[in-house]
């Protein structure tokens, strides 16, 4: 299951990964299930609390300890290794 935030009422919605749209059960807004409004998870770098943030965010602030955890780094390093794999498939 994947999650996104409703564009109408900001309720967190669950939907089946791969679906192109999801209708909100609260306000009946049809939300397009594209990456921009998907929700990702990261553990706080300080207290290990599980945090949610909107996909594409560079950092997320912990609501418990106010530590700012950077989330952009891991996404770009994954992308770089993926590119490397395509360029050098025999390594
Ligand atoms: Zn809604
Ligand atoms: Zn924290």
Automatic annotation (TrEMBL):
It comes from Platanthera zijinensis. InterPro entries: LSD1-like (IPR040319), Znf_LSD1 (IPR005735). Keywords: Nucleus, Signal. Residues 6-30, 44-68 form the Zinc finger LSD1-type domain. The keyword Transferase does not apply. Residues 1-21 form the signal peptide. One of its GO terms (cellular component) is nucleus. It is found in: Nucleus. Coiled coil: none annotated. This is Zinc finger LSD1-type domain-containing protein.
